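We emphasize that the prediction below concerns an isolated chain of 245 residues; any contacts that depend on oligomerization or on bound cofactors are therefore not represented. The input was used exactly as deposited, without trimming of termini.
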Amino acid sequence: MVHGNRIDNVNYLVEGFIFLIFLLTNELHLLTFFDELENYHKQEDWLSWMDELSLNDYVIVDNFLDVHGLNTIQSFFQSHLDSFTKAGIGALGDNVIRQDIRGDYTFWLDRKRDTALDDFWNLVDETMYVYNRYCFLGLSGYEFHLAHYPKGGHYDKHLDQFNNRNNRTISMVMYLNRNWQKGDGGELEIFLKDGTSLLVEPIEARCVMFKSAVVPHGVRASNKPRYSLTGWLLHYPSAVGKFLG
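Result of the prediction step, given as a token string:
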């Protein structure tokens, strides 16, 4: 009986050792993966941004897009303007055009098709990794579109969730506007828990990230064309989200 207990103890030790090796190997893989992605943003910057988002439900990051990435997206944007369509509100069969609520035009991106944006897609991979690694969000998909607000375009106060689809977890807005000045309008308005609101100017290369389900926001009327790249990190892919509530 004692001999059997010793064997069991040895087995537990071996299993524990194997599990420890697995954890260490996995951790080393994660660190190596981040090192491979770090050409976009430093780990300490990401950790600071995650802390701020956890505290305030949103974070504003200037120069999130580097010069090369920004120029590539801006060129892609201009070359596809003719393909933009009027944006509606609601998902699936509930989607309707309401000019009084939303005045932008959008072009939905596809990673397999839009290979000219490979640097951007890699930045999305890095962002997904950071949220999963440090915030334990279990993100497994994303969706992005380009957005064009013509002069006078706006978007009333809303949440980035649908009644029949609730898989949007983190919203991201990246601005592409050259030489934006005060008075040009088009500010993102974030409605805070204390009843006040914060106006965020759509400055070139700036990124705003916020929790999709808890941060009401809108877009003030723009006094000139306003360009952005907007998207959502999803806790299951958009194709699944269309069928799950």
